[in-house]
């Protein structure tokens, strides 16, 4: 068989499905490369499902993986997003291009579906996290549009993708559960977390709302995932690899005992499918009105989690550890600078304050409720397939990188840091 002009034997395809990195004299491929083209969207099973699902944000990494899982079981899938998926689409998956901020576009896409997975959001990380206006419009108004359209068009089920951040704002949380109160809105260090909290509240409040066609009520629930990872993840991992390759990842911060959580994309897909099933009458709408924390269930130090990626790409793991207070201060200064010059030069901050908290302060949660009520059982994963994915695309340490170039970069980084700090100090003789 041929794929991208490379001949692959059936044995090779089977080997890839088992997750083995394959190398011979003519071919160098990995599980991750063919995950997109061979395994993610296989042909639908006949007579497996008659349901229709709409996925907002369906062109993103997680949304697309969820779509393909549902598609495999025979469901009809509609992806609603501003851009088409990079991976391409099988003929029987429908893509509707639209903006979640525009109610008319949402309403048109949602008519006739059985269940909505509302994944679309904006402002999770980096410079996007500083665009307050767009964050508000997408996360709050967009969610209102989805809820209104569900009620108007008789859609009885909605699963919302929320975040740990609705209860976390930099405080230590050890084995927390869903009984924790929402973090007061004014304590959120970023607008993304604040708006996701507002959106989740709206989704859960809408549970039980009578549908306009008289067919019943809207049943809604929310899943609060940890940071998502997996081969081909498009938001966080490329940024991490970029920092590694540019020589910026020269230090870690926070206590070595600090613990956070992550969730593999396939575990998150499983949780969403289970949550949607738990909303149906046959399951007594058991997940309706509920929120669930979702992760791999294995708390780990943030930087130790990424050690296999750093070393797998051929780079040394940093030995220098800085206090989290210093990194937070630098992140604060960076945000202030972005606020001043962002309208003219929208640069990518090294880290935001929220990212410092998320990576350096202990916060992890119990999966007991998700396991008991949804039947969620996270499978064990690691970063091996992620390393293979990046290496198969040419990433990894380049042997020609000289000592002098690394030294020059270190000097420039130190000078830039000093310049930022000095710019915020009072001038001599002022006052």
UniProtKB/TrEMBL annotation:
GO terms for molecular function: oxidoreductase activity, acting on the CH-OH group of donors, NAD or NADP as acceptor. Residues 54-323 form the 3-beta hydroxysteroid dehydrogenase/isomerase domain. Coiled coil: none annotated. One of its GO terms (biological process) is steroid biosynthetic process. Keywords: Membrane, NAD, Oxidoreductase, Transmembrane, Transmembrane helix. The chain crosses the membrane at residues 326-345, 407-425. PANTHER family: BIFUNCTIONAL POLYMYXIN RESISTANCE PROTEIN ARNA, SHORT CHAIN DEHYDROGENASE_REDUCTASE FAMILY 42E, MEMBER 2. Belongs to the 3-beta-HSD family. This is 3-beta hydroxysteroid dehydrogenase/isomerase domain-containing protein. It comes from Perca flavescens.
């Amino acid at each position: 068989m041929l794929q991208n002009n490379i001949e692959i034997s059936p044995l090779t395809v089977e080997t890839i499905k088992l997750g083995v990195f394959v190398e011979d004299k003519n071919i160098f491929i990995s599980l991750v490369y063919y995950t997109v083209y061979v395994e993610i969207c296989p042909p639908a099973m006949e007579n497996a499902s008659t349901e229709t699902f709409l996925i907002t944000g369906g062109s993103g990494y997680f949304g697309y993986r969820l779509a393909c899982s549902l598609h495999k079981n025979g469901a009809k899938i509609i992806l609603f997003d501003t851009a088409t998926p990079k991976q391409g689409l099988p003929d029987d998956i429908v893509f509707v291009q639209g903006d979640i901020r525009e109610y008319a576009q949402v309403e048109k896409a949602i008519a006739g579906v059985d269940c909505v997975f509302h994944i679309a959001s904006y402002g999770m990380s980096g410079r996007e996290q500083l665009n307050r206006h767009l964050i508000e419009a997408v996360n709050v108004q967009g969610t209102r549009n989805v809820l209104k359209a569900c009620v108007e068009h008789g859609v009885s089920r909605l699963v919302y993708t929320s975040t740990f951040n609705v209860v976390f704002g930099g405080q230590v949380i050890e084995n927390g559960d869903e009984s924790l109160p929402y973090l007061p809105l004014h304590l959120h260090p970023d607008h993304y977390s604040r708006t996701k909290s507002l959106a989740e509240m709206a989704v859960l409040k809408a549970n039980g709302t009578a549908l306009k066609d008289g067919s019943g009520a809207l049943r809604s629930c929310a899943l609060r995932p940890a940071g998502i990872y997996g081969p081909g993840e498009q938001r966080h991992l490329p940024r991490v690899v970029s920092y590694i390759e540019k020589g910026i990842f020269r230090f870690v911060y926070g206590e070595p005992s600090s613990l956070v959580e992550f969730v593999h994309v396939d575990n998150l897909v499983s949780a969403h499918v289970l949550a949607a099933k738990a909303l149906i009458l046959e399951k007594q709408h058991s997940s309706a009105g509920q929120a669930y924390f979702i992760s791999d269930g294995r708390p780990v130090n943030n930087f130790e989690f990424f050690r296999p990626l750093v070393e797998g790409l051929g780079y040394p793991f940093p030995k220098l550890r800085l206090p989290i207070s210093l990194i937070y201060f630098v992140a604060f200064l960076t945000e202030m600078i972005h606020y001043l010059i962002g309208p003219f030069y929208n640069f990518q901050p090294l880290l935001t304050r929220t990212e410092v908290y998320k990576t350096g302060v202990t916060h992890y949660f119990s999966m007991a409720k998700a396991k008991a009520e949804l039947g969620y059982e996270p499978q064990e994963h690691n970063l091996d397939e992620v390393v293979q994915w990046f290496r198969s695309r040419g990433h990894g340490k380049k042997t020609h990188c000289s000592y002098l170039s690394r030294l020059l970069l270190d000097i420039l980084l130190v000078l830039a840091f000093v310049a930022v700090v000095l710019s915020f100090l009072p001038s001599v003789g002022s006052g």
